[in-house]
Amino acid sequence: MSASESTVFPRTPRTRVRRRGGRANYERDVVHAILDEALVAHVGFVADGQPYVIPMLHARAGGELVLHGSPLSRMLGTLRDGVPVCVTVTLLDGVVLARSAFHHSLNYRSVVVLGTARAITDDARKREALDALVEHVARGRTRDARGPSAAELDATEVLAIPLAEASAKIRTGPPQDAAEDRDLPVWAGELPLHLTPLAPRPACDLPLPDYLEEYSRVPAE
Amino acid sequence: MSASESTVFPRTPRTRVRRRGGRANYERDVVHAILDEALVAHVGFVADGQPYVIPMLHARAGGELVLHGSPLSRMLGTLRDGVPVCVTVTLLDGVVLARSAFHHSLNYRSVVVLGTARAITDDARKREALDALVEHVARGRTRDARGPSAAELDATEVLAIPLAEASAKIRTGPPQDAAEDRDLPVWAGELPLHLTPLAPRPACDLPLPDYLEEYSRVPAE
C-alpha cells in the first residue's frame, strides 16, 4: 500500500489537532465522509498578506478535492498560481447546553485540508471533475442534466487539491459539566440540528426526480 | 452620523464583490442578520505563510464580532498578535438544479469580514462578550446558565474584531438556464434546505426551557 493509499492521514505539524486532541480523527474514511456530506467548503488563501475565506461548492473526486468557477475569478486566479490553500468544511450537528456557560459547546464534524491547488486543463478530466461537482449536489443528476458544451468547458476553471494533508475534528455527545455543577437546577442537554430539505420549488411541470424525493446530505453507503 | 454608524459598509477594494456583483450587498442590517443567524464562522489567518481556516462559534456584540477559546490555542495566540483576519459565515439555503449542468448553483447568504482582532482583557467586557456568545447559541440562555467564575474567565481568551470592512453575497431564486435550454425535458427548480432542530436529548430531568421549544436560527425581530 502506497502512502497515498494509506487508510490514515499523517499527523503533520500543520494538521495535528493541538487543542482537544481527543476530538481529532485522521482516518481517511472519516475525512472523506465529512467532505462528501458537506455542500459548502470554506476556501482560504492569502493575497497581499491578507487571508481571504470564500465559500465554494466542492466535490471529492477520488483522492482529490475539486473546485470550480469562472476563469475571471480573483480567487481561482490566485489559487491557480500554486499558492498554499486551506479548505475547511464543517457540519453542524447541534448545540450543547451545559449548566455552566463555560461548558456550552457545539457538536460538529469538521475537516481541514492543506495543500496547493493546480488547474485541471485536460478536457476529459475537466468533465469528470464537473460531473463530480454535479453529483455532489444531487447524486444521479448527471444522468439528466445537459452536460457542459465546449464553450461552457472553456468558461469554467477547475482546480484540484490532492487529499494528502488533512485531519478531522469531531465533537459528539452531551455537555460535560464539572461535578460540582451537576445538581444546579438548569436544563442541560443537546439540541441536535440537521440540514433538512423543504418542499421543492419546481421551475417546470415535469415530475420530481427520485434523487430529489429521497434527498439527503448523508452520503449513501 | 459617524462612519462607524453608517447603514452601509464601504465598498473597499478588498470587500467589493467582483464576481456576480448583482449578488453583493453592503447593507449593515443585512450583514448583521446573516452573522446573527449563522452558528459557525470560518476564521482565516496566516501562520508561516500558510492560510488556516478554523470553524468557531462567533457572536455579534454591537458593532463587533467576538470569538473565544483557550488562551493555549495556537489560533487565538496568532490572532491576538494583531494579524489580518478574515471571518466568513455562510448560510446554505438550498440547491438550484438547472437543465444544464453549467447553470447548477446553490442558494446561500454569506458574509466576509476583514480586519484585525484584539484581545478583550477587561473582565466586565469579557463577561459581556461571553454572554453574547451564549445568547447567540440560544437566546435567553444567560438567564439560566451559571455565569463564568473568575477562574473560568481567566481560562478564556476573548477576541473582538470590529465590523468595519464587510460585505454580503446572496443568491436566491430559481435556476437561470439559457433560453435555448428551457424546453429540455429535465426537471429544474430549487430544493430549499434549512437547518432544523430535531428532538432535544436531555441530560437531566428538568422541563425543557421555552427558548429550546421555540428554537430557531432565524433571529427574532
Write the layout of secondary structure elements.
The structure is a homodimer of 221-residue chains.
Chain A: E1 24-25, H1 28-37, E2 40-47, E3 50-61, E4 64-69, H2 74-80, E5 84-97, E6 105-116, E7 118-119, H3 123-137, H4 150-154, E8 157-162, E9 165-171, E10 189-197, E11 201-202, H5 210-213
Antiparallel strand pairs in A: 1-9, 2-3, 2-5, 3-4, 4-8, 5-6, 5-10, 6-9, 7-8
What does this entry look like structurally?
- The structure is a homodimer of 221-residue chains.
- The first copy, chain A, is of the alpha+beta class and 221 residues long.
- The model of chain A has no long low-confidence stretch (mean pLDDT 93).
- Chain A starts with 23 loop residues before the first strand and ends in an 8-residue tail after the last helix.
- Chain A is built from 5 helices and 11 strands; from the N terminus they run E-H-E-E-E-H-E-E-E-H-H-E-E-E-E-H.
- In chain A, 19% of the residues lie in helices and 36% in strands.
- The interface between A and B is large, with 92 and 92 residues.
